[in-house]
Write a sequence for this structure.
């Protein structure tokens, strides 16, 4: 968080950074805003020195020193002035920042640090990325060759041998080891194009993750963090998980258990011959918390997806792209493996509606589209929307999401 921007941002990069800050914080790149709506957001050009000093960890404005910029403080609406109070002020000067302006600029700076650090990392690791591209190219060639039964059998034996008492996974509990089945080994081998070494590493990670998350895997209890549920299945009978950001009530870290249980419920509903699922992420109404800028929860989720839930992801449909989410996506997208990119579709609401109608039967498509529409009706309160949160059980019947 204290990484100096001026260490790796040249003159042109500073200009780009200021443009990004302007876009995020709602300021104007040419002149200070004089409108009521943005009265609490100073123009970047009116605060260049203060912004750069605070970003580099140097002498910050007195207002920044006095304001509590912790995640807990900024998440409390009581710590910020009301919109009416903020809008009634005149355009703020560089020596008098409102608390709302400080909060917005602090958020903009933290996002900008992530974006700029990702760009720097991309430049400094050009050789590593080139190696990854070569490996991806070699993997794509391997994909064209179907693994023979003897190769699969040999890989499975090698991976399951890790469970022996004298091997690296011998110390794990019986609960963790029981997940190391032949079917799971085959799924890892298919996902990793027959690479036994890579599959074995994911095998170790998956079983260690299972042992660490024994309580939630057995009890399947979680704190309700939002509307994330198995809403139906597509024409190939793959479970479809729907999630809307407008209904997120807890931070991303607090929602991880619910994501795990929802995926377990999707696996339970899979008929014979089906191994993967579809995710629909509706980003409408997304509200960024400072705690959500911490990548640790998302890193944990990705690790579980690539290890414990390996081979379970068919595709993700992402509806809409808020401004802050787009800034983060643009920063990290070049680093995403090509195989993962191919499974992610960014769509507008209209494009998603057409896609869902072609991929699901009339009943399931109607249920998904009704949920999307309901989450866009401002007259409905959160409690009213909760009443429609129904999930599909193994036998196909609809039950309340918490049942």
């Amino acid at each position: 968080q204290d990484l100096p921007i001026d260490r790796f941002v040249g003159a042109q990069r500073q200009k780009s950074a200021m443009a990004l800050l302007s876009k995020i914080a709602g300021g104007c790149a040419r002149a200070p805003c004089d409108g009521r709506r943005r009265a609490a957001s100073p123009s970047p050009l009116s605060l260049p020195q203060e912004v750069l000093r605070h970003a580099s960890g140097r002498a910050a404005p007195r207002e920044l020193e006095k304001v509590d910029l912790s995640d807990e403080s900024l998440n409390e609406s009581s710590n910020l002035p009301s919109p009416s109070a903020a809008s009634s002020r005149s355009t703020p000067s560089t020596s008098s920042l409102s608390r709302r302006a400080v909060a917005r600029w602090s958020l903009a700076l933290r996002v900008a640090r992530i974006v700029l650090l990702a760009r720097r990392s991309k430049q400094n690791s050009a050789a590593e990325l080139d190696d990854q591209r070569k490996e991806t190219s070699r993997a794509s060639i391997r994909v064209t060759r179907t693994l023979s039964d003897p190769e699969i059998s040999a890989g499975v034996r090698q991976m399951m041998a890790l469970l022996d008492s004298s091997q690296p996974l011998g110390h794990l509990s019986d609960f963790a080891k029981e997940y190391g089945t032949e079917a799971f080994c085959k799924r890892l081998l298919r996902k990793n194009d027959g690479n036994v070494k890579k599959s074995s590493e994911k095998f170790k990670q998956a079983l260690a993750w299972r042992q660490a998350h024994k309580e939630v895997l057995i009890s399947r209890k979680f704190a309700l963090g939002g509307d994330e549920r198995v809403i139906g299945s597509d024409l190939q009978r793959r479970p479809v998980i729907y999630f809307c950001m407008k209904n997120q009530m807890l931070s991303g870290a607090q929602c991880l258990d619910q994501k795990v249980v929802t995926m377990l419920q999707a696996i339970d509903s899979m008929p014979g011959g089906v191994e993967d699922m579809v995710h629909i992420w509706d980003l409408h109404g997304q509200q960024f918390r400072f705690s959500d800028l911490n990548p640790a929860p998302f890193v944990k989720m990705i690790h579980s997806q690539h290890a414990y839930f390996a081979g379970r992801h068919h595709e993700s449909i992402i509806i809409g792209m808020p401004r802050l989410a787009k800034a983060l996506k643009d920063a990290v997208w070049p680093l995403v493996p090509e195989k993962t990119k191919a499974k992610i579709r960014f769509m507008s609401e209209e494009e998603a509606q057409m896609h869902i109608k072609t991929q699901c039967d009339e009943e399931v498509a109607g249920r998904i589209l009704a949920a999307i529409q309901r989450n866009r009706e401002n007259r409905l309160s959160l409690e009213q929307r909760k009443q429609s949160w129904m999930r599909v059980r193994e036998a196909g019947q609809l039950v309340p999401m918490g049942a």
Summary: Strands lie at 227-233, 239-244, 277-282, 313-319, 344-347, 390-392, 398-400.
